[in-house]
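Exercise: predict the fold of this chain.
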Amino acid sequence: MASRISGAIIAAGRGDRLRSGAGGLPKPVVEVGGEPLLLRQARMLAAVGAKPIHAIVNHETDAIIRARQIKLPKDLSLMVRDTPNSLASLLALGEVIPPGWFVMTTVDAVMRPDEFVRFAESARSFTEAGAAPSFDGALAVVKWRGDERPLFAQVAPDGIIEALGETRAAWVTAGVYLFNTRIFSFAKAARERGLDAMRRYLALLIESGMKFRAFPVADVIDVDQAEDLDAARAMLKDRSNAL
């Protein structure tokens, strides 16, 4: 039987590049498929059995949620903190995520629901009784299509991620992950090195001997700019892509 899995959403960034095409709103409250991105990601996590779900947002986003009276799912708990970068957001979530396994997504990683379910179900095999304890998680990866500032994943033939970084490769990370809370044991080392981005922390984990498997997925859109928003809405317009 699989152990309990919790959920996490990184949603504390300002999303400055997207604002001009999103009415000046921060990413978590920008609507895609008829609902704010934050709620969409929470719903996707709940659909794969993640509970509780912790999301980190900044004070601006929290104020908008309150002003618009956006109803949050009952299992979604907000941490309100103005973090300076994605790594600080991740480590802040580490303060509240229950020990064990958790599925995490960035708020702007728009994936088809069937793909999200496929990733989560495959990745959860690591949490089942008798599963190999040597794995620390799994990262969804997608073929690189020329998007800006990707995090390239060097993937071995057996599916193990050998390195993450700027060296060009066929695969890039997709913003959806399965982790064990063991990853937070390197928080002190990250702070001592002055790391300022989650991507650098993930690279540190692999360099330090942690093992992550790559799971190829398709049709993931990282919503960073107005054209990404249009592409995500078009992808989800088909009713077959809605849960």
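Check your answer against the key: The chain has eight helices and 13 strands.
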